[in-house]
């Protein structure tokens, strides 16, 4: 049984490599839940929700949606807590609407009946290990079970959080299930050969990894995570976010004098005045940063000064604006040019066309979806994008309330 773990790199420097455990393959019968009764106690406080879950997951997809945490289904190495009822309800609704209904709309109900997971297990907390500094957002196990963590932090009003911690995780984990069933082309593994870093991917700057051809720093950990991240990010990132990511992939990024320190990276620099340019003691950098650990592509203007030893030191009191779109960046750069500042791009040649590599990886995924599954990768993205932008959580909740 293979375990694929979706891991988030945060300010705590998080990392964990997927673990593998072998077991025998078993044929599945008509149901893997023969002892589950068809009815739910109408006197139960969770009657409506349990009935909705049975009607929309078990009865259609032969899937057991476990929102009451089952300890034997969880990793005993982590200190975990159950999901709260309200959070579990909302995530179950969104899982159906944004994941299952997306594939149903594109490839019919039969597709997920045959290829979907058989267990979805919700856990309230992240799987956090303080000794290793790791947080796991999701697990895909042997094509059978998907575990979703951090459920108690769900905020239906925060789209960025929903996308980063839940929507993208769903599609990432399902990509693992799919490629365990039908392998993706080995050509994918050659595109970034020699540039993966399984041990220190979490320390790599997002701007730098895009210029190397990776969609996220987690994608730069190993090939199978690269493939799943390529799919999940293409499907869930908005057009604006995606174009900004590709803009970052086009830039030359400078990571400082210490090439191993990639927590900060710059692509442009300029001097605030002619005197500063002459003595080379003060300059600005346009720098890539993460935004609240949500892996959103942003850049900011930072003033640096040289100390008495000649080292560049960030002046934290002079941080500039933060940008999140190409239009904002280009407008800002134009304003600087018009004001008389000369913009200097860093001339760093990593010998890699990051945008081209990312597009090649997407094309391999696109052809894999079409050839192996008969699915349009771009149509899937269009459906998911529409559903992400247009879900009505109150209307979805009403589905449960309408249960008799």
Q: What layout of secondary structure does this protein have?
A:
Elements: E1 3-7, H1 47-61, E2 64-66, H2 85-107, H3 109-115, E3 119-122, E4 127-129, E5 134-141, E6 145-148, H4 159-181, H5 187-190, H6 206-211, H7 223-236, H8 239-250, E7 265-270, H9 274-279, E8 282-289, E9 298-306, E10 312-315, E11 322-323, H10 326-338, E12 344-345, H11 354-373, H12 377-390, H13 393-401
Parallel strand pairs: 2-3, 3-6
Antiparallel strand pairs: 1-5, 4-5, 5-6, 7-8, 7-12, 8-9, 9-10, 9-11
Keywords:
404 residues, 2 domains, alpha+beta, single chain, elongated, six-stranded mixed β-sheet, 13 helices, six-stranded antiparallel β-sheet, Collagenase (Catalytic Domain)
Notes on the protein architecture:
This protein is of the alpha+beta class and about 400 residues long. It folds into 2 domains: about 1-30 and about 45-180, 3-Layer(aba) Sandwich (Collagenase (Catalytic Domain)); about 185-375, no CATH class. It is built from 13 helices and 12 strands. The chain has helices at about 45-60, 85-105, 110-115, 160-180, 185-190, 205-210, 225-235, 240-250, 275-280, 325-340, 355-375, 375-390, 395-400; strands spanning about 5, 65, 120, 125-130, 135-140, 145-150, 265-270, 280-290, 300-305, 310-315, 320-325, 345. Strand 9 and strand 10 form a beta hairpin.
């Amino acid at each position: 049984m293979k375990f694929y773990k979706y891991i988030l790199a945060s300010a705590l420097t998080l990392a964990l490599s997927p673990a593998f455990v072998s077991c025998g393959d078993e044929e599945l019968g008509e149901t893997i839940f023969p002892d589950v009764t068809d009815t739910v106690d109408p006197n139960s406080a969770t009657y409506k929700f349990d009935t909705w879950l049975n009607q929309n997951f078990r009865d259609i997809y032969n899937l057991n949606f476990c929102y009451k945490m089952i300890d034997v289904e969880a990793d005993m190495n982590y200190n975990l807590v159950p999901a709260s009822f309200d959070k579990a309800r909302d995530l179950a609704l969104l899982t159906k609407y944004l994941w299952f209904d997306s594939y149903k709309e594109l490839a019919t109900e039969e597709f997920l009946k045959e290829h979907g997971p058989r267990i979805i297990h919700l856990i309230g907390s992240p799987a956090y290990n303080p000794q290793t500094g790791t947080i796991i957002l999701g697990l895909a196990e042997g094509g059978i079970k998907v575990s979703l963590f951090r459920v108690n932090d769900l905020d239906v009003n925060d789209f960025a959080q929903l996308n980063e911690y839940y929507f993208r995780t769903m599609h990432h984990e399902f990509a693992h299930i799919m490629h365990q069933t039908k392998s993706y082309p080995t050509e994918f593994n050659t595109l970034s050969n020699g540039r993966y870093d399984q041990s220190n991917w979490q320390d790599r700057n997002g701007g730098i990894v895009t210029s190397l051809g990776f969609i996220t720093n987690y994608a730069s950990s190993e090939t199978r995570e690269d493939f799943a991240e390529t799919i999940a990010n293409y499907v869930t990132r908005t057009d604006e976010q995606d174009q900004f990511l590709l803009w970052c992939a086009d830039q030359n990024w400078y990571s400082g004098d210490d090439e191993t320190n990639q927590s900060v990276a710059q692509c442009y620099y300029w001097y605030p005045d002619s005197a500063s340019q002459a003595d080379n003691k003060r300059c600005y950098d346009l720098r890539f940063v993460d935004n609240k650990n949500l892996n959103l592509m942003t850049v900011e203007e930072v003033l640096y000064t040289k100390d008495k030893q000649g080292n560049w030191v960030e002046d934290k009191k002079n941080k500039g604006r933060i940008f999140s779109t190409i239009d904002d960046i280009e407008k800002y750069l134009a304003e600087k040019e018009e004001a008389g500042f000369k913009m200097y791009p860093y001339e760093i040649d990593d010998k890699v066309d990051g945008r081209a590599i990312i597009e090649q990886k997407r094309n391999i995924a696109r052809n894999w979806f079409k050839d192996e599954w008969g699915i349009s990768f771009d149509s899937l993205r269009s459906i998911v994008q529409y559903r992400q932008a247009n879900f009505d959580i109150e209307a979805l909740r009403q589905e449960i309330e309408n249960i008799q």
